[in-house]
Amino acid sequence: MSCSMHDYLQHANDLAQRGTVFVTVTLVEPEGHVPQDIGAKAIVTERGLSWGTVGGGRLEARAILHAQEMITRASAVVRTAGVIQPELVRYELLRDLNMVCGGAATLFYELSSRPSWKIALFGAGHVAQATISLLCTFSCTLTCVDSRSEWLSRVVDRANVIKVLAASPPEIVANFEPSTFYLCISQGHATDLPIVREILRRGDAAFIGVIGSEAKSRTLRSTLLKDGFAEAHVAAIHCPLGLPMGSNAPAEIAVSIAAQLLQERDRVRVSGV
């Protein structure tokens, strides 16, 4: 394995472990005077060139722009069954990029897969923000849903964090994939309850967690049972959300929630349920 390939794999693995979506750009067919050799690679994230080069100059600038457009399109389809396919693009250097050296270059664009661990978090308040700031460092795709644009704007900006402004958050539940981990950390019982109802109606959640006190837990479960939901499904809801540890400070609550999610994720992986 060449040193450059080793470096590429190491950098790509580091990005994947952080949950960062990226595009690998590879020069697969240089023709004529092209400023890099066949097999040259670059890694592009939403912020721009992250590693490597496919030649610099206008060719690389076009490659970065195309890769970032792929990442943007991937964000738009993350909640659907849509897939961004790899793309092969040939550039005539003089005609397409006004590069006087002439020749042509064919670049192969391949989008990294998003992490398979999907987390949907409803709410963008102080505890939700602290929780997202911690969870986004894991290898996961995290979607934050709220009806308040001013609170969503305070949520951390990361490649694996998707912000959804929704007038009716419960309606967004239908957009998520099976086996999603759901966290309800919204403005209170009145806003959490309709969301939980929609999650239970789907019947395919890997985890349902609702923040609150023991009193809220009793009220939530009693209401859901009166609504006709199965006792076993209601009993499986994690409310209060988080492990019994730490204080009521948002940062410490976030740690307790993250620890519980990791615990449950590993249990699901081991049991295969």
Task: Quickly list its features.
273 residues, alpha/beta, Rossmann fold, 2 domains, 5-stranded antiparallel beta sheet, 5-stranded parallel beta sheet
Assign the structural class, choosing from mainly alpha, mainly beta, alpha/beta, alpha+beta, or little secondary structure: alpha/beta
Number of helical segments with 4 or more residues: 9
Mean model confidence by pLDDT: 88
Order the strands across the largest sheet as they lie in space.
3-2-1-5-4
Q: What is the number of domains? A: 2
Number of strands: 10
CATH topology of the largest domain: Rossmann fold
How do the strands and helices of this protein lay out in sequence?
Elements lengths: L2 H15 L5 E9 L9 E5 L2 E5 L4 H21 L9 E6 H5 L6 E8 L6 E5 L3 H10 L5 E6 L2 H4 L8 E5 L15 E4 L4 H14 L4 E4 L3 H13 L4 H5 L14 H22 L2
Parallel strand pairs: 6-7, 6-9, 7-8, 9-10
Antiparallel strand pairs: 1-2, 1-5, 2-3, 4-5
Task: Describe, in plain words, how this protein is organized in 3D.
- With 273 residues, this protein is of the alpha/beta class.
- The chain has two domains: 3-111, no CATH class; 118-271, Rossmann fold, CATH 3.40.50.720.
- It contains nine helices and ten strands.
- It has helices spanning 3-17, 57-77, 93-97, 126-135, 149-152, 189-202, 214-226, 231-235, 250-271, and strands spanning 23-31, 41-45, 48-52, 87-92, 104-111, 118-122, 141-146, 161-165, 181-184, 207-210.
- Helix 4 (126-135) packs across helix 9.
- The longest helix is centred in the C-terminal third of the chain and has 22 residues, at 250-271.
- It is elongated and about 75 Å long.
- 33% of the residues are buried.
- Mean pLDDT is 88; it is low at 78-82.
